[in-house]
Automatic annotation (TrEMBL):
One GO BP annotation of this record: proteolysis
Protein name: endopeptidase La
Active site residues per record: 654, 697
Keyword Protease: yes
Reaction catalyzed: Hydrolysis of proteins in presence of ATP
Family: Belongs to the peptidase S16 family.
InterPro entries, per the entry: AAA_32, Lon-like_helical, Lon_proteolytic, Lon_Prtase, LonB_AAA-LID, P-loop_NTPase, Ribosomal_Su5_D2-typ_SF, Ribsml_uS5_D2-typ_fold_subgr
Length: 795
């Protein structure tokens, strides 16, 4: 085997700048006060915030843990503090239509004062109005007016009565009217006496009655006019007094809100409504002594009629509002009209209306997670419509309307809010391609990076970030080597020697856990020892399944060879992602070749265990074999490939080169070294392509080799393009440095087969023939034999 394929120690070890850290621990550092390497996202957010119009809402994308939600909130708060504080909003009764309450906008911080003032105003009027109108002086004046009117009415009627008596008639008052009757001996004539009169007498009485009725009719009209004038006068007097009483109490409020036209209109309507319904106030006291429960109910209804429902109170806010809604349900987002049960039904009124997050964020910013929004299509569609219309409607959920029960319908409220959606790449891709309205409303995308270059500046900012976390979370300070250990973890997260992870969520977790272990041992600072301990303990808590799988190799329950040579058999590397951790596990791939119709039998595909990407890898192998060995005659070989002892689904093409090595070994008859595990995808040109999770794959095979016994010959072969991704565990690196484990890098199949067999792959001549003692030469020889035999059988 040629040493040129080995990964050198220089390539293996991360190179950190020396002398960069001149501090004893992070308490000596200035905590980080800015964002690391997110210029693109920050500028996009700044652009979206400064663009006006309902279409420039923002969608923030990025991997989980990049801190995008926290950063967005900080940026929005910084931007909002320089803007004017939004107005307060109140809901008041519509005296013309109780089912359509009115929204009033007023200066920030004044809504509660307005509400309390109106409550006090009504409480005072409940006392003052009855006190004034039931006072002896007012009652005496009222009685005098009644008496005067009564005297005038009586005088009018007496004149007619005297006229009637002169004609032998009298005027009697019935329950509903006045009646003219003849007299006999000074008394009303009976029916018998009246019928006993002769025709001349009857005619004389009728003529007299007509004369009296001619006098009585205008008299009664005049009496009614006097009564109406008296009532109108009393009403006008009551209205004047009530107006004065109201003005005394409400004028300070009116003056306070002199610049608020809507409140001035509302207060005018309140005054008129009280005057029109003065009996409600007068009736309260008259029933207090006798009917306690009823009067309480009436009093509550009276107060509620003029109550002010504060929808949005901004007394404690400075600048534009920034609202984060963690649970964007229909009611939480758009508001709610509550209802209470009453005698088998439900009732509601304007005081039971509640504002949602959209209204609370009006003229400011609303932050929402996209996943819960998309889980409720009704909410998502309503949000888009609301943003497009720039109007908010507080209403019952459309799919929960009870048409047998009346509900409120507050007038639409003008809405100007900047919505910031936070989510992953997949929801954004789906919405952008499938939702036309989404593209019109969310025109700004802010994409958060998950990694940053490993520069001196970023490394130092990492240390300052740790200093900030320690100060904010009250953690022990980290030593310089503790910081380097965290930086190593940051590189490991992105699996790149030249990069640092910007997913600060997991990093924050490690900082807290390292602090825990340091405090548990009574340390005064967090050193590298405790960072390593935190990482190991975190893995220990989550790797039970990994240990159970590893135990299967102990007693050959799962077959794997880590030494010796075998034909048509290669150790591949799979990765299990368990969420919190990922780990590698070797698996045996075997290939068997035999004469038959040309083609590869993908056992996993035939048994419905193969995914599309894995099937693609198998097809690529067919293309490679055809390019390399079917230029002079067709292939007449059948090849069966399988993952041994694999009973779950297989997908991905990172084992495609491994499968090809097994095929080449089977065709050539040259055995492959079992102490070398292989990973890497291959294209039809035979080039080895990079794969993911290279560190986990290497460590997975290393752990099995340690379990079965290191031989100084074991190792892993990886694509050369993955060398930069090597950020291995310390124990693995130390074993490689000591020469007990090895890493190999290859760029093509030719190099890989040479590493695995110790024999050169071979180069074709002008006739596409390979040297006989090479791997490809022996493959070509076997394929030629199969072709010749197939021709014989064909004959």
């Amino acid at each position: 085997m040629k040493e040129k394929f080995k990964v050198s120690l220089k390539e293996l070890n991360q190179k950190y700048p020396s002398g960069l850290f001149d501090f004893k621990d992070t308490s000596k550092l200035e905590p980080l006060d800015r964002i690391i390497n997110q210029k693109r996202a920050v500028e996009a957010i700044d652009f979206g915030l400064n663009m006006t119009g309902p279409e420039y809402n923002i969608f923030v994308t990025g991997l989980e843990g990049t801190g995008k939600s926290t950063i967005v909130r900080e940026l929005l708060k910084e931007h909002a503090k320089n803007r004017q504080t939004s107005e307060d909003l109140c809901l008041v009764n519509n005296f013309d239509n109780d089912y359509c309450p009115v929204v009033i906008e007023m200066p920030a911080g004044s809504a509660v004062y307005f509400s309390q003032s109106m409550t006090r105003f009504i409480e005072v009027l409940k006392i003052k109005i009855p006190e004034f109108f039931e006072a002896p002086s007012f009652l005496e004046e009222q009685n005098a007016i009644h008496k005067e009117t009564s005297i005038r009415q009586k005088k009018l009627l007496e004149d007619v009565e005297q006229f009637a008596r002169n004609l032998g008639l009298s005027i009697l008052r019935t329950q509903t009217d006045y009646e003219v009757v003849p007299l006999l001996d000074g008394k009303p004539m009976s029916q018998e006496d009246y019928q006993a009169l002769d025709e001349a007498a009857l005619r004389k009485i009728d003529e007299a009655m007509e004369q009296v009725e001619e006098k009585l009719s205008p008299c009664l009209i005049e009496m009614d006019n006097l009564a109406e004038q008296m009532e109108a006068g009393l009403k006008e007097k009551v209205a004047s007094i009530t107006d004065q009483l109201i003005s005394e109490q409400i004028d300070p409020v009116r003056y306070y809100f002199k610049d608020c036209k809507d409140i001035q209109i509302y207060l005018k309507n309140v005054k008129q409504d009280i005057i029109d319904n003065i009996s409600l106030f007068l009736g309260v006291k008259s029933q207090e002594e006798n009917e306690g429960e009823k009067v309480l109910e009436m009093t509550g209804s009276l107060v509620k009629r003029y109550q002010v429902n504060v929808l949005v109170d901004r007394r404690r806010e400075k600048g534009a509002p920034v609202v984060f809604e963690p649970n964007p349900s229909f009611h939480n987002l758009f508001g709610k009209i509550e209802k209470k049960p009453v005698t088998g039904s439900f009732e509601t009124d304007f005081t039971m209306v509640q504002a949602g997050s959209l209204l609370k964020a009006n003229k400011g910013y609303l932050i929402l997670d996209i996943e819960p929004l998309l889980s409720n299509p009704l909410v998502w569609e309503s949000l888009k419509r609301t943003l497009q219309d720039s109007q908010l409607r507080i209403e019952d959920m459309p799919d929960q309307l009870d048409y047998g029960m009346p509900s409120l319908k507050p007038a639409p409220i003008p809405l100007s809010v900047k919505v910031v959606l936070v989510g992953g790449y997949e929801p954004f891709r789906i919405l952008q391609s499938a939702d036309a309205r989404f593209n019109k409303i969310f025109k700004v995308r802010a994409d958060f990076d998950y990694e940053a270059p490993l520069t001196d500046e970023n490394i130092y900012n990492y240390a300052r970030f740790i200093a900030r976390v320690c100060k904010k979370e009250n953690l022990l300070s980290f030593t310089a080597d503790g910081v380097w250990a965290v930086i190593g973890y940051g590189s490991r997260m992105v699996a790149n020697q030249q990069k640092l992870s910007l997913r600060f969520g997991p990093i924050l977790g490690i900082l807290k856990e390292a602090d825990y272990w340091a405090k548990k041992e009574g340390a005064s600072v967090v050193s590298e020892k405790y960072v390593t301990l935190a990482l190991n303990q975190q893995r220990f808590r989550n790797n039970l399944y990994e240990e159970k799988l590893s135990e299967e190799f102990d007693d050959q329950y799962v077959l794997i060879d880590v030494k010796g040579r075998t034909t048509g058999q290669v150790n591949a590397l799979a990765v299990y992602d368990m969420g919190e951790i990922a780990f590698g596990r070797p698996t045996r791939i075997t290939a068997e070749s035999y004469m038959g119709p040309a083609g590869i039998i993908n056992v996993e595909h035939e048994s419905d265990l193969s995914g599309q990407t894995h099937d693609k890898g198998i097809m690529i192998i067919s293309g490679y074999l055809g390019r390399m060995f079917a230029q002079n005659y067709p292939l007449s070989v059948s090849i069966s490939i399988t993952f041994e002892q694999s009973y779950d689904g297989i997908d991905g093409d990172s084992a495609s080169s491994t499968e090809l090595y097994a095929v080449l070994s089977s065709l050539s008859g040259i055995p492959i070294r079992q102490e070398i595990a292989v990973t890497g995808s291959v294209n039809q040109k035979g080039e080895i392509q990079a794969i993911g999770d290279v560190n986990e794959k290497i460590e997975g095979f290393y752990d099995i080799c340690v379990k079965k016994g290191l031989t100084k010959h074991q190792g892993v072969m990886i694509p050369a393009s993955n060398v930069k991704n090597l950020v291995l565990r310390k124990d693995v690196v130390q074993t490689i440095e000591s020469g007990w484990f090895h890493l190999y890098k290859v760029t093509n199949i030719e190099e890989g087969i040479e590493v695995l067999t110790g024999i050169a792959a071979g180069q074709p001549d002008s006739n596409d023939c390979y040297p006989k003692e090479t791997v490809f030469g022996k493959v070509q020889e076997k394929l030629k034999k199969y072709h010749e035999l197939s021709l014989q059988f064909g004959k």
